[in-house]
């Protein structure tokens, strides 16, 4: 089997024969095999055992026939070597031993040395780069999203303490953003050197911010990150998560290649807001995977039709897969995206 | 002291001397007095003791000097007499004994008879209508938001089962919407007859829906509710909650008087999306109440300035007050809204 680089070409707005597709959290609890592995290993253990982590990463590629793999990991992983003590608690998420709230806390954060600190991640990527016949997407959390866990001490509904630092101690906030920004650039460059064919930055909670707050407190760091990654020769994807629709106009001049959007904004409307410099990735509501096939099919068709209105489109969900999603629906959807988009592109 | 009807005039886009202000969850855990009462009574007990409930409702009006009171209650209250068995669990929210998921469940729901079933609510309103010197806002949850609790069995992050019913059993879903719609009209009419000077429908979770899903599965019921309330001579407010920004264009022809928006969309942008038929209410991010005063003041000023660009504006938050908010900040903000808007209006 030859290497399938459709995903990369779509990211770069080049010609394609079908719309490429992958799914956020395509390795996860909806898979029986994954649930079996999780009986013996915690999520973080899997991340730290390169052979096992590679196996978990490859499994959905084999099962679903998707056009890209995404490194199995967690956005908290690079925070460990920065000095953040955390654990990931089932059904709750990442919980910190001590939240980061004052100048000393922030000053204590050091930059990572991926070859030393996160060798298991790089080793996993090296295995995957050898074994996969599709591109591997490396990833990291974005500064706001990572900061929200660090300042709150865990998942949050309202991000009260995070915003309190942002509004009340902007210098401290900026130092935190700066440190996270540097870590992200270092980490992604190391992932790319190890063999990642693309990278995605997950800003899952940025949609909690009013656009002007995002602009003032987050945008400068995102701008810098993508600038510093500009010369790195792989596609960069930025994903904004739940209710990020109001932020899209601010993404226009970020040096990312692909912008991932959630289901509240259509692909057409997303392109209108972001402008045509970027490819678009998205945006099926994952709950649709529990709908009758006819409903799911017509929604997928609409997304693909809009996606093909301009060069540069990657089919994905607007949020990670839920454990409740049936794997056979995902397989059927993947086949449909390939076949339907192939037929449309062949007619053109 | 004479009756202050500024809030009603703003809702109806009439002339005002200052911008009226009230806060969602203005009676709540941020108040020491409320916390004391809650040591002796559960939330639902307070709702069921008219004298106590009226006291809790009046307290923030006295403390803050706001231009409207909002009935202390919970959106679950009218679901009890429909046949929903639930409890409200501290820090979790409403939890149902049995979720509503099949045709029999939905068929078992009966309409309420407020005079019989919810006499304690009407009695509370009667007390408040006598005692208050500002309008009392009655309220209810909206059909989608109520249905989400009923189908999920409690609070949800992803509304999987709710959307599953919507997509997979649209007839069942429509019957549920119809029953909730009828309850809402009956309940609000009874509240208004008892003395509520305005009513608000809270659709806190509607922002989880893509606009086209909202249009297909929720909008028809909202349209009908406001049509059936059209002749009732008090202002009707519709509030869409977190990330409802994408839904605003669909609200344009709803027969509500006021549209409440969250902080992700500015007042100016909200008016642009909804159109000029409605007054606007909102939309300070409540976390701003934990920011330094200068930050809060400049944001409040911006909201007021935009609010005064067209007739019909009510100052509020974009979400309920958090327990962490200091009461003196709310008082200072209330005074500022009154004084600053008064000075602007006097110059015009």
From TrEMBL, chains A, B:
Name of the top EC class for this enzyme: lyase
EC number: 4.1.1.37
Origin species: Ammoniphilus resinae
Compartments (UniProt record): Cytoplasm
Family: Belongs to the uroporphyrinogen decarboxylase family.
UniProt entry keywords in alphabetical sequence: Cytoplasm, Decarboxylase, Lyase, Porphyrin biosynthesis
InterPro entries named in the record: UROD/MetE-like_sf (IPR038071), Uroporphyrinogen_deCO2ase_HemE (IPR006361), Uroporphyrinogen_deCOase (IPR000257)
Cited function: Catalyzes the decarboxylation of four acetate groups of uroporphyrinogen-III to yield coproporphyrinogen-III.
Subunit structure: Homodimer.
Uroporphyrinogen decarboxylase (URO-D) domain: residues covered: 20-29, 137-153
Reaction(s) this enzyme catalyzes, per UniProt: uroporphyrinogen III + 4 H(+) = coproporphyrinogen III + 4 CO2
Underlying gene: hemE
The organism's taxonomic lineage, starting at the top: Bacteria, Bacillati, Bacillota, Bacilli, Bacillales
Binding-site residues, substrate: 25-29, 74, 149, 204, 319
Pathway recorded for this protein: Porphyrin-containing compound metabolism; protoporphyrin-IX biosynthesis; coproporphyrinogen-III from 5-aminolevulinate: step 4/4
Chief location category: cytoplasm
Protein name: Uroporphyrinogen decarboxylase
UniProt site positions, description: Transition state stabilizer: 74
GO molecular function, one term: uroporphyrinogen decarboxylase activity
Annotated NCBIfam families: hemE
């Amino acid at each position: 089997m030859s290497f399938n680089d459709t995903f990369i070409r779509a990211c770069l707005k080049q010609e394609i024969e079908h719309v490429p597709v992958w799914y956020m959290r395509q390795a996860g609890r909806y898979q029986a095999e994954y649930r079996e592995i999780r009986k013996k290993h915690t999520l973080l253990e899997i991340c730290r055992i390169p052979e096992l982590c590679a196996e978990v990463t490859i499994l959905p590629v084999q099962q679903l026939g998707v056009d890209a793999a995404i490194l199995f990991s967690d956005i908290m992983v690079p925070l460990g070597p920065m000095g953040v003590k955390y654990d990931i608690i089932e059904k709750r998420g990442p919980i910190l031993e001590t939240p980061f709230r004052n100048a000393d806390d922030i000053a204590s954060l050091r930059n990572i040395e991926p070859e030393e600190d996160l060798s298991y991640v790089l080793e996993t990527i090296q295995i995957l780069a050898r074994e996969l016949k599709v591109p591997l997407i490396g990833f990291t959390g974005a500064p706001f999203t990572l900061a929200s866990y660090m300042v709150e001490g865990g998942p949050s509904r309202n991000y009260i303490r995070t915003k309190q630092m942002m509004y009340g101690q902007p210098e401290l906030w900026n130092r935190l953003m700066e440190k996270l920004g540097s870590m992200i650039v270092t980490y992604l460059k190391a992932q790319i050197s190890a063999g990642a064919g693309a990278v995605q930055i997950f800003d899952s909670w940025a949609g909690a911010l009013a656009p002007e707050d995002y602009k003032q407190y987050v945008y400068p760091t995102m701008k810098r990150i993508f600038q510093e990654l500009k010369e790195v020769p792989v596609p960069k994807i930025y994903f904004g998560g739940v209710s990020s629709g109001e932020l899209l106009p601010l993404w226009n001049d970020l040096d990312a290649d692909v912008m991932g959007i959630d289901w509240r904004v259509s692909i057409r409307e997303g392109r209108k807001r972001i402008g045509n410099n970027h490819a678009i990735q998205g945006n099926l509501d994952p709950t649709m995977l529990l709908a009758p096939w006819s409903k799911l099919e017509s929604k997928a068709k609409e997304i693909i039709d809009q996606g093909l209105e301009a060069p540069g489109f990657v089919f994905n969900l607007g949020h990670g897969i839920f454990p409740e999603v049936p794997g056979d629906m995902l397989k059927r959807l993947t086949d449909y995206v390939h076949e339907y988009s192939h037929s449309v592109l062949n007619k053109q």
